[in-house]
Write a structure and sequence with these properties.
single chain, alpha+beta, 3 helices, 4 strands, globular, DUF6145
């Protein structure tokens, strides 16, 4: 698998949210959390937010915006992405593990806490 797979996306331009049908099996609470997170992000700073798995199964938050979109908050976007990476770290790690196991076929070692 040499390409990225989109998990979900939200667009302030079309005011739409997209969840890749491949991930319909995720728990309802996770799907709702992703939708709320993405929609609030685009409502706050504008543009398009994509959650994408790279070829190694790492989850990336990608932001796009139309050229000449002066309402897009570039500084706010960077700050909001950092905030999401901190506050949603556990969710993102769980999604990466899910993807690596079910889509990349990796076996995950159990983490033991001491």
């Amino acid at each position: 698998m040499d390409e990225e797979m989109v998990l979900c996306a939200a667009s302030s331009y079309e005011q739409k949210y997209y969840l890749n049908p491949e991930f319909e099996s995720l728990p309802e609470a996770v799907k709702q959390e992703l939708q709320i997170m993405c929609v609030l992000y685009t409502a706050d700073v504008g543009g398009v937010l994509l959650l994408v798995f790279d070829e190694n199964g790492n989850l990336e938050l990608k932001v796009e915006h139309n050229e000449g979109d002066y309402s897009f908050d570039e500084i706010g976007s960077v700050l909001k992405i950092k905030e999401l990476q901190n506050t949603k770290e556990e969710l993102f790690k769980s999604l990466e593990m899910f993807y690596k196991v079910f889509y990349l076929g990796e076996e995950m070692e159990e983490e033991t806490e001491e």
